[in-house]
Automatic annotation (TrEMBL):
Transmembrane segments: none annotated. Pfam families: DNA_ligase_A_M, DNA_ligase_A_N. Belongs to the ATP-dependent DNA ligase family. Coiled coil: none annotated. GO terms for cellular component: DNA ligase IV complex. GO terms for molecular function: ATP binding; DNA binding; DNA ligase (ATP) activity. Residues 385-501 form the ATP-dependent DNA ligase family profile domain. GO terms for biological process: DNA recombination; double-strand break repair via nonhomologous end joining; nucleotide-excision repair, DNA gap filling. Residues 738-750 have a biased composition (Pro residues). The keyword Nucleotide-binding applies. Residues 721-759 are annotated as: Disordered. The keyword Electron transport does not apply. It comes from Mycena albidolilacea. This is ATP-dependent DNA ligase family profile domain-containing protein.
Length: 892
């Protein structure tokens, strides 16, 4: 790039106007977000065959086994046979003329920027065929091949040709440092050694805008410009809580923001002279998505105190005088909660203006267990925004302002709107002060995030500017940490070559890079009829996870198994199973005669449009099993997968409210809701995060930073009082002794079945829960006999430690054998037989709940309310055990 740039400037100085912008548009066509051509390989191959007057068959074989996998390369082969141009022929077209014709070609697409279509109105522009003929008729074969890949927006296969053709050599003998691909940042450094263009691009991240400013000689401090996207800061990946903090250890104070599962929206708002406001919205890819996201325009204006009609604007409500640039996440709302990520797409299509608008589908009523997954749009779902940063206000750049100050400005500008516009939740963590047991730790915050569940966290240094290289943003997500992603066993039923993954791996089309994943659909039928053929539903693909050696081994396994070429015109009767393929998938190349079991992990679960089944988000294959190791029968069927996914995303089963109502009428236990299970999940996650960080610190060698961070985590040095048994325990609530021991918390609605059951308080010993007012039972001295009998007590008991303070929880667990500990109240209920339909554990005679009396009233009330529900229901059942509660006053 350096040599080419120097030669260009030597031979053609001075360079024509706009040369910088044109060169970068042609060299990095994937970054040209303004122009869309609506042509991929299949459509472009047919159009080029018409231009050349040749058969389209050779061009349509660009991805066939034995070909290059590059349409531009196939164009070169065809034209080398038919073109009359010599090797040293130079086209009479200048790059500016080629660029203008590409602009005209892009004007035919409704997805191109409005400026492209305005500059080439329908009345004057030529047809696509006429433009392509004009472009290609005076090009040499080599130039034509490059132009083809520019239209396809991918020059990689021509700039970095395949070193090997056979998949084994390409995968196993690959040298990762043999080729360094040119990035746009490196190209900018070569084009401008002073790095002025690169500095402009970091603030004004449109290639055209950065190139124009560079050619115009813009100097000094570069400020953002309304209508030009600002580059999103690159973030580091936190591989563990301790690792994430280590990256920012030079900071004195860190803010941990919740990363919401939505689509990035950089919002530019300009107040015009007429008083109206103009909104421009850029997506994460820097594409102008203003009209695609028309559904949030009203939310933006309302949050800023603006009105669509200037006559209604008021200086007393408007918090922006001239302009503002905001960073936000566009999310789907369902009632008062943020909905799942996959809901966004349909809401955008339903509310968009222009080519992306899709009318709401008419879904016929159907009796289906996953009917709520059939349509993504409903009356109580809508788009909303989560604001987390502000980059410019009233023409003043805030990029260099510390994060803590930017957040304060943001909160003064935005007016939250319930269920429509909120601020990102965040927690402060001080790194260089003495830890306090009441201060939140990253382990605790991340555990709460995983239990809710949210996508993850973003750590930001309080003193960092926007896109500050000294203090990068650090993302902490579950699937970033080894062993923490959602893991399932599903079956592989097909394979294919995917051009994008193949170009990353640099392999030819004779390699399988992408695998088709499905699950057993008729598990219940096969249980009833062992002779039934298994029926699989293939509905998503996985291209990542395997090492190059693992991928080569899988290719060998498939190619040696006599796989059948896929033909969508007829069912493959020779197979021992039947299958269906989700219509949204590109058909596979081959179908396996015998499905392979694969272990996959991902970042939660999502759903494709019009699909009824959850699939892993960002799926990665960790292992593919040979049939002698594990067979497809060991995999998860679609019904079980749906239950797992529903639990992970925090979604109650369909008709749960009806089932709960029925159970309450008949005095049966009500199944716990997702929200009730989250506390137990958070405790489990926190314990695991702390334990894993301590293990890593020990293996890698403790540092002073490790010790300081983990000092705030639960300590296991101090010992609590030995356990002692009491069958009736006074529960301290910091209230008057006359207060009812089981009075429900005002914020927690009482159980619906409670009033229908007779009062049994105070309860006999046969009742699962007996409680007396506090301060009535003296605490006896602990004798040697008490200490000796505790082992007998625990031998037939299960213990749940109900403590929010991680230090207290860790201390209690030192006194209880690990095999006697359960991690949730629900698990304790099930083991003791207090859950409808689940037989009790035969050896459990009692359940013990350790409840620290210094816990918050809300937490204790939640525990007691849950126990009271089960107590009322269990009165009408045969009793198996009485519950014992242990009390310890942390203030003693």
């Amino acid at each position: 790039m350096n040599n080419w740039t120097n030669t260009l400037r030597t031979k053609f100085a001075p360079l024509p106007e706009n040369t910088t912008a044109i060169v970068f548009r042609l060299l990095f066509p994937e970054e040209d977000t303004r122009r869309k051509y609506d042509m991929q390989e299949t459509r472009l191959a047919s159009a080029l065959a018409d231009c050349f007057g040749t058969s389209a068959a050779p061009l349509h074989q660009w991805a066939a086994d034995g070909s290059s996998g590059c349409l531009g390369e196939e164009v070169l082969k065809v034209l080398n046979k038919t073109s009359s141009y010599t090797v040293d022929y130079i086209s009479p077209f200048s790059i500016a003329e080629v660029d203008n014709m590409l602009e005209e070609l892009a004007s035919h697409s409704g997805y191109s920027d409005i400026s492209v279509r305005t500059n080439n109105p329908r009345a004057t522009r030529r047809s696509k065929t006429a433009i392509l003929r004009a472009l290609y008729r005076s090009l040499s074969p080599l130039d034509a091949s490059f132009l083809t890949q520019i239209i396809l927006k991918d020059l990689r296969p021509l700039l970095y040709p395949l070193p090997e053709v056979h998949y084994t050599v390409a995968l196993k003998s690959f040298n990762s440092v043999s080729v360094t691909q040119l990035s746009k940042e490196d190209a900018m450094k070569a084009w401008d050694p002073t790095r002025r263009m690169l500095n402009i691009y970091r603030v004004r991240s449109g290639l055209d805008e950065a190139a124009t400013a560079f050619d115009a000689g813009v100097t000094g401090t570069i400020v953002p410009r309304i209508g030009t996207p600002i580059g999103i800061p690159k973030s580091e990946k936190g591989r563990a809580c301790l690792h994430a903090l280590e990256i920012l250890k030079a900071s004195k104070e860190i803010w941990v923001e919740t990363k919401y599962d939505g689509e990035r929206a950089q919002i530019h708002v300009q107040i015009l002279d007429s008083g109206r406001s103009r909104i421009t919205i850029f997506s994460k890819s820097k594409r102008d998505s203003t009209w695609d996201r028309y559904g949030i325009h009203g939310v933006v204006r309302e949050a800023l105190g603006l009105s669509e009609e200037p006559s209604l604007d008021s200086s007393s409500t408007a918090r922006v005088k001239t302009d503002v640039i905001l960073d936000a996440e566009m999310v789907a709302w369902h009632g008062d909660n943020i909905d799942e990520f996959w809901r966004i797409r349909a809401l955008v299509e339903h509310t968009a203006r222009g080519v992306r608008h899709q009318p709401e589908p008419n879904v016929p009523p159907v009796n289906y267990s996953q009917a709520s997954l059939m349509t993504d749009v409903s009356d109580d779902r809508h788009l909303g925004l989560v604001f987390f940063d502000i980059l410019m206000l009233d023409s003043t750049s805030l990029l260099s302002v510390p994060y803590s100050s930017r957040r304060a400005i943001l909160e003064s500008v935005i007016q939250p709107i319930p269920s429509r516009a909120i601020f990102a939740d965040r927690t402060r963590i001080a790194l260089h002060t003495t830890p306090n047991n009441n201060d939140p730790t990253l382990h605790h915050v991340f555990a709460q995030c995983l239990a809710r569940p949210e996508e993850g966290l973003v750590l930001k240094a309080a003193e960092a500017g926007y896109n500050d290289m000294r203090f990068p943003w650090v993302k902490l997500k579950r699937d970033y940490i080894p062993g923490y992603g959602d893991c399932v066993d599903l079956v592989i039923l097909g394979g294919s070559w995917d051009k994008n993954r193949a170009r990353e791996l640099r392999v030819a089309p004779n390699a399988y890079t992408t695998f088709y994943i499905g699950g057993l659909h008729n598990a219940e039928q096969m249980k009833k009829d062992p002779t039934a053929r298994p029926h699989f539903h293939i509905y998503f693909t996985a291209s990542y996870g395997l090492s190059r050696d693992g991928l080569e081994e899988t290719n060998f396994l498939i190619k040696s198994s006599d796989a059948i070429p896929y033909d969508s015109n007829h069912q493959l009767a020779a197979l021992p199973f039947t299958f269906t393929i989700f219509p949204g998938l590109v058909p596979p190349t081959v179908i396996l005669r015998e499905p392979l079991l694969a272990e996959l992990f991902g970042a939660g679960f999502t759903k494709s449009p019009r699909s009824r089944h959850y699939e892993l988000r960002f799926p990665r294959i960790t292992k593919i099993f040979r049939s002698r190791e594990r067979t497809w029968q060991d995999g998860m069927n679609l019904q079980d997968l749906h239950k797992v996914a529903r639990d992970v995303v925090g979604r109650d089963r369909s008709n749960k409210d009806i089932d709960d109502w029925n159970n309450s009428v008949w005095g049966k236990p009500i199944s716990p809701s997702i929200s009730r299970k989250r506390k137990a999940k958070a405790d489990i996650w926190e314990e695991k995060l702390i334990a894993d960080d301590r293990l890593r610190a020990r293996k890698q060698g403790w540092t002073a930073f490790d010790s300081r961070v983990l000092q705030a985590a639960p300590s296991i040095c101090s010992s609590p009082l030995p356990l002692r048994t009491r069958t009736n325990v006074g529960v301290s609530r910091n209230s008057s002794p006359a207060s009812p021991p089981l009075a429900p918390n005002p914020s927690t609605p009482p159980p619906r079945h409670k009033a229908r059951l007779p009062s049994v308080y105070p309860s006999p010993i046969s009742s699962p829960l007996a409680v007396q007012p506090p301060n009535k039972i003296p605490s006896p001295a602990i004798s040697t006999k008490d200490r000796e009998s505790i082992s007998d007590v625990l031998s037939k008991s299960l213990v749940f430690v109900a403590a929010q303070n991680p230090i207290s929880r860790e201390r209690w667990k030192l006194k209880v054998p690990p095999e006697r500990i359960v991690h949730s109240l629900e698990a304790l209920f099930i083991a003791c037989g207090w859950d409808s339909g689940v037989p009790p554990s035969p050896w459990v005679r009692r359940g013990i709940i350790v409840l620290d009396v210094d816990e918050s009233i809300v937490h204790k009330t939640n525990i007691l309310d849950a126990m009271n529900e089960r107590r009322a229901a269990c009165i009408h059942q045969s009793n198996r055990a009485a519950i014992s509660m242990l009390e310890r006053n942390m203030l003693d």
